[in-house]
Amino acid sequence: MAAYIFRRLLLIIPTLLGIMIFNFVLVQFVPGGPVEQVLAQMQGQGDVTAGFSGGGNDVGEETFGSSSEYVGARGLPKEFIEELEREFGFDKPPLERFLNMMWNYMRLDFGESYFRSISVIDLVLEKMPVSITLGLWSTVIAYLISIPLGIRKAVNDGTSFDTWTSAIIIVAYAIPGFLFAILLLVLFAGGSYWQIFPLRGLTSDNWENLSLLGKIGDYFWHIALPVGASTISAFATLTLLTKNSFLDEIKKQYVMTARAKGLSEKKVLYGHVFRNAMLIVIAGLPGVFIGVFFGGSIIIETIFSLDGLGRLGFEAAVQRDYPVIFGTLFLSSIIGMVMQIVSDLMYVFVDPRIDFEKREG
After folding, report:
1. Backbone φ and ψ of 340, nearest 5°
2. How far apart are CA 76 and CA 39, in angstroms?
3. With the CA atoms of 321, 322, 324 and 328 taken in that order, what torsion angle do they form, in degrees rounded to the nearest 10?
4. Which residues contact 176 (CB under 8 A, 6 or more apart)?
5. Phi and psi at residue 328, in whole multiples of 5°?
6. Is 10 helix (H, G, I), strand (E, B) or coil?
7. Cα–Cα distance, 59 to 80 (Å, whole number)
8. Cβ contact 314:298 at 8 Å
9. CATH superfamily of domain region 121-360
10. Transmembrane region positions (predicted)?
């Protein structure tokens, strides 16, 4: 197993390199880079070269004409544009910029945000508690509800319980997460009905002054609605996946043999069927967590005014904050691939009969 893990870890390197190359090349063709963002912000603000150290007072003597590659650069001195390019590192060719970036990432140097004056790693650590909250609790709640419910639906397949719970699950799956989040706000956050939960934030303003129990209660009070909104789609998928997996196992010969030996239904389900049926469910655990952690939280964070990694990535893409974009992409790619290895280890933990080394051989 150690050799298999080592090979998987080595495979991360070319995979990660391919992801970074593809996205770096793609970014080169996207209009509106950070220099253009700065120029756009400076339009109509009077003396745009007031803070320029090398332009002197003759700001209008050497300007760009209609051939300027930057929209909105007319009337600005060439030296000012070149200074901006040097500041953002665009005075170097793309290949050199990419190699420098990857070399810095190998040394865990992710640079500094173009527009926030803070290092990327500090920015990620600052936003991570929100994303961990959504990803962790949504995954835990989804599994705690879906697995028992899926097992019961499989045991009672075709009954009225199975029918009406399937109807609820299908409706829940059909409701978009953002629409359910808005519904929760309207109903329970003072929108039009009850003011039960807070409208925004992860904690209250007086959180530091609360007791330990008060802090725990305040924390769960704030995350109740966003976690509920981010859980609904994963809950529906996992329940049906668990049910179908159990149905496939229940129909197999070893289950009938176990029952013929006089084993109780509970012993058959949880002593024999559970281990085999849970393989495919456990395999989806990393995907569910990573999906909520990095992707599904963008809309939820925006609706509930939570400042997490999803919102950070979206704002960085809009602002063309390349250090933040590539830094978070690098980290999320590594985390995603490591979680896939963890998924394989969980396979072996649930069923020790699985040997990935023999399968590869």
Report:
1. -65, -40
2. 9
3. 140
4. none
5. -70, -35
6. helix
7. 9
8. yes
9. MetI-like (1.10.3720.10)
10. 9-30, 132-151, 163-189, 219-242, 277-304, 324-350
Alpha-helical segments (H) within 156-211: 160-174, 177-188
Token readout for 310 is: 């999803």
Q: 3-state DSSP call for residue 74?
A: strand
Q: Side chain identity at 284, as an amino acid letter?
A: G
As given in the structure block, the two tokens for residue 5 are 């893990």
Q: What does the alpha-carbon distance between residue 294 and residue 331 come to, in Å, rounded to a whole number?
A: 11
Q: How far apart are CA 165 and CA 145, in angstroms?
A: 12
Tokens (6 digits) for 353: 């009969």
pLDDT tens profile 294-335: 655 677 888 888 888 878 888 888 878 888 888 888 888 888
Residues 6+ apart with CB under 8 A from 208: none
Residue pair 271/287 in contact (Cβ under 8 Å)? The answer is: no
Q: What's the token pair of residue 247? A: 């149905």
Which SS3 state, helix, strand or coil, does residue 63 take? strand
**Residues 294, 332 contacting (CB under 8 angstroms):** yes
pTM score of the predicted model = 0.69
pLDDT in tens, 188-228: 877 667 778 887 777 777 877 888 888 888 888 888 888 88
In three-state secondary structure terms, 318 is helix
Adjacent-strand bridge partners of 189: 195
Q: How far apart are CA 115 and CA 59, in angstroms?
A: 24
Token pair recorded at residue 145: 């509800």
Cα–Cα distance measured from residue 361 to residue 356, given in angstroms and rounded to the nearest whole number: 9
The 3-state DSSP class for residue 348 equals helix
Tokens representing 350 are: 């649930």
Q: Where are the alpha helices (DSSP H) in the chain?
A: 2-28, 34-42, 78-88, 94-106, 120-155, 160-174, 177-188, 212-250, 253-260, 265-268, 274-283, 285-290, 297-303, 309-319, 322-350, 356-360
